[in-house]
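Researcher: First entry.
Model:
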Amino acid sequence: MARRVLVDTGAWLAAFHRRDQYHAQAATYLRQLRTEQTELIVTELILAELHLHLVRGLGIQRAAEHLQTLKADPLVREYFTDARLQAAAFSDWIHPFADQPFTFTDAVSFAVMRAQRIPGAFTFDRHFKVAGFAMAPE
């Protein structure tokens, strides 16, 4: 099986925004993942969150272009959440980690990662480490 990594919203944003504090690190790591033919896992919630930030930061047209490019990318695999994964987001992540400000998108990402046995995420969000997942780049 090909290597898989969940790509969080912040990692995509950093890769797209040259002025982002993590841009150089994100662009370099994304190139490495592509060279290694790593499957880039996203959920529809990540894409929706990403689109919202891109619309605000880059405008409607560029945001649409970036999203369409991602959805057409053969290395990007989109997982659609269902009631089971959303319930797991609450029962396994939001309620037990009530002291952590996990977003619903993060909690569903954690549920997908557990269900699909994806050990790590391309993210700059420390919540993934708190939840027990590997983060890259470190």
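Researcher: Second entry.
Model:
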Amino acid sequence: MAKQVKTPVAPRLRFPEFREADTWARMSLSKLLRERKQRNRDLKYGPEDVLSVSGDHGCVNQIELLGRSYAGVSVKEYHVVETGDLVYTKSPLKKNPYGVIKENKGKPGIVSTLYAVYHVTELAHPAYLDHYFSGDYNLNSYLQPIVRKGAKNDMKVNNAAVLSGEVLAPKVPEQQKIADCLTSLDRVIAVQRRKLAALIDYKRGLIRQLFPREGETLPRLRFPEFRDASGWEPTTLGALADFHSGSTPSKANPAFWNGAIPWASAKDMKQLFLDDAEDHISTLAVYDGAKLVPSGALLMLTRGMTLLKDVPICVLRREMSFNQDVKALLPKGGTEGLFLALLLLGNKERLLRMVDIAGHGTGKLNTDELKALELSTPKPAEQRRIADCLVSLDTRIAAESEKLDAFKTHKRSLMQQLFPSPEETL
């Protein structure tokens, strides 16, 4: 059999100054990286200098990321990590089952002996390799042939073997140009992510001020036109809404499923407004007893593991059905449905305190206790003003979230053009 010849390749997109340059080489990673075997035996670094490596955050100080150091009793044998070193963590992640490789872009520090540390040779730029391995396909396809997994899903690979595979790389000047381009885009994404997080935090704080505290009948913040209005009226959730229970049509009857009617469950309740559901039922299921509630009704999760950390509440934008883990609340007595949803969200901590732990570690909210929940409400005009304010903020948050997603999509597309696929040279 004739020996397979690897075809030289170049990416689909190259910067102008490199369009006439040599094609990219496929070379062993051992030519680009060397293992750093330096230990912290002089105790130059302490527990406060321990670094963690994650797929989302890269190589960062453990205390800054997790709020505390998880260092062992002694850090004497920990590996030293200099700025610009690459660290391989032998911990499986969902998207990266063979671990991740990240550059330390911050201050020097140390990592436990479960990590492997490498420094670049004169043939490599560290940020280029960091971006190269930030692509899931590049990373997973590189590590899969090298790493063996143990019975406990642990990684069976020594530090030298990690360098035995091949990667694609141009000369260092082009590596640096690619790295600088992607790093600048990363900064834009980071700024957008911080902007989005600030808006979300602002909304949480605003909700806490626009609704009265537990046991009080006046919020700390009112819109100017209502500052001289009367106080909010004490009431209960049961006086503000009628409760309806959901159900699950028989799975044994396929005629009940895959119809045109959305059937909501916990997995759908991830935003304030609900336009559709992942599952759908048929009109026949409704005839058989499945409940329908109109647009404007509220859905509240009242059973499930999600309740151990959150109480999802959403407002329907169309008629829907729902399962038995969910209660539908139909506002009554002139109550604004959207305001009621926001009022409940503003009392999320109280709702979480009401969650009982049921069998198998799931949470449960008692309907009678929910109906007896003491709340305060203003006149309809103030209800609408509060709802309009918070919805406009939600609209802005959604727009900024879409912008962040667009930046991420642009980066993924750019990387696909700036890096040839490893399989192209096979």
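Model: Note on the second entry: The longest helix spans residues 172-210.
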